[in-house]
Amino acid sequence: MTPTAQRRLLVVDVAGKELAFDLAEVEECVPATGVTPLPSLPDCVLGVAALRGRIMTVVDGAQRFSLGMGLRRYFAVCRVNGRSTALAIDDPIVAHEIPVRELDQAEATLQLAQMGLSPDVVLKVYEWLEGDAETGYRATGRFVPEIRLEKIIPGELWEGAA
Amino acid sequence: MDQELLQAFYAEAEDIVRRLEADIDTWMRDPKNADLVNGLFRGLHTIKGNSSFLDLKSITELSHRAESVLDRVRKNQAPADSEVLELVLLTLDDLKIMIIEKDGEYKPEATVKRLDAYLAKGAAAPTTQAPASAATLAALGDILSGAPATSATPEVTAPIASAAEATASPAGVGDGVAKAVKASVAAPSLIRVEEGKVDKILALSQELELARNGLEGLLERWENGESNVKEELDSLTRKISRLSRSLAGIVHGVRLVPVNQVFQRFPRVVKDLAQKLNKSARLEVRGGETELDKSIVDAISEPMTHLIRNALDHGLESPEKRKEKGKNPEGVVTLSSYVRGSYVYIDIRDDGGGMDPNRIAAKAVEKGLATQEAVEKLSEQDKLAFIFAAGFSMAEKVTDISGRGVGMDVVRSNIQRLNGTVVLDSKVGEGTTVHLRFPLSTVVRYSLFVRSGAYLAAFPLEQAELSADYRKRDFLPPGGVRDPSSEVCLYSLKALLWNDNSAPPEDELHVVEFYDSITDRHVGFWVDEYVSTEEAVVHAVDAFLNRSSCVQGGTVRKDGSVCPVYDVDRLLALAAKKEPLALVRSPRGTLQAESSDNLVDSLLAG
Fold first, then answer.
1. What is the chain A residue with the closest CA to B498?
2. Chain A environment of B455 (Cβ under 8 Å)
3. Do B284 and B335 touch, CB atoms closer than 8 A?
4. Model pTM score
């Protein structure tokens, strides 16, 4: 099997599901710290936390993507609309260039339905391949949706922010 | 090629090009001004010398020719006529492409040909050979101008890693799993720092080092059995605290640059556009020295250009129409910048025809963006905000209030991306002001900390009128405010923020009082406990948190937690929409309460 792409991804575990993010847009993963709740926010926005001298909005990945209850053990610090935002995840799994097969739309829709993930928040769905160019690539049956980073913050919060 | 040197060249050359643009605008009005010609000549000369040193041939050859043209003018061998002006403008346009846009493939052949043609008209064509080195050119510059071809303020350039580069391995992630790798390999962004600031940083670092030595000495004495060191320790701790605060303040300031860096691009934009539109307009700039984060200054040029273009195209009337209205035929576009609270404002104002909120609302109804019933309930500002709706602008363009909305949705999203907000203010017949508001990334300010329910909350101290205990017996019977100067509309802060409608205690309750200039009333927020009044470093938060949660910033407490600093104006607006818990006679003048002035005075004295 030949990979259709080599993607630099951060793959994380959120409430038992594997989600991927474009690694170029992820600053770091750090152990979760205390979050200060703020009023009138949707449930998936936990509040704000201080990370390396900056104050960031913290979004709960599990609630944001309707995946149930997560462990929130780590924060993946992502660039969202030019600002750093902390996404609470269970655990980081891998962060490097991964050989993948990009699923076509029908396959992707099926996988997302099985995961219970809305297609609106997903850029692409990949099957993670094993092996390398020398030994050859094998299908693993592990499917990873790449999340649209701009969707981490719920749209209704941006609307009318000006 | 040395990348650091190249980055430094581009940074300096960009500054020079921007300055030359502003100078040209002045020169157009005053073509006989020899100082300006000399300044333009020196700027081009510096670019030529430095680019030659780095072997950037296209830049060198172009600036060399343009410099030769100006040399004739400064030596009175040629007049400062429209041809010269056009040649210099063309040169600047090309330099902008090669220096600001860093287009390494661009060849300014057309401009070079025109410059050569001009120079060929004279006695001797310029040599096309690039000068040998920057040193020789600099020396030549000194001889020619009598002044060094460097900027007036001594500066050093220090590389600052962009946020995207600030990566780290995920601390604590074991078992050989995730390793976050370098997120970006983009070239480092450079910030020019005044030499004076670097000197201050050095001096403070040295003072801190001395204080640390003192601390070590104290520790040694304590270990040797000297128990009476507490007083010295307290004094040293205070000193270290003061030094580290000062150091943090200066280091944070390193990212700040004057907004003039972007303002000075616009005189020419206004001139060119006015000419194209057959309008008469001038640009006025105020507060250009206001400092703003470099990343914002770098990014606001595009949305500002759009807004200025809108102001000229759709805001300002034609000279004839202005005369008819009794206005000066020359319209004025004003750019101003100022700091208010934790925000930097940039206002773009035109003295044109203004926008009619009702006509905009009618258009919104026509386009199906809102119902007639809904728009009738909207404030004027909310009606004006329809121009931010995507696609609204195209239809507006054909009307006489016209395409004010052209691309305004894009302007707004660009400003939001910078964590800023856009507010419109317009009066029919008088003009329109677009207020761009950006949070100061970090600001040190006196803050009043209280506890409300389970949470800490802070307010900017200068906005608080009073922080005092109110007695329940001072509650007034219902029936509206009779004496607005002494009566306070009381609200529960936790009810406003958290919908927690617990009843206030029976005897005394702590209240922080503010004055609401919009409703002209005193408003008190009942809180559970006064905690402290402190100088706090307030960091910016995402702009949407201001709208959703009335938060304008956050400060990090000693335990690492974040305390939100609330936007009092937002809170007052929220309160104005609700019924007060009670009316209370203010204890001002009867109780020994701590007013913000007293609190600040005592803090300063301490």
1. A39
2. 36-37
3. yes
4. 0.60
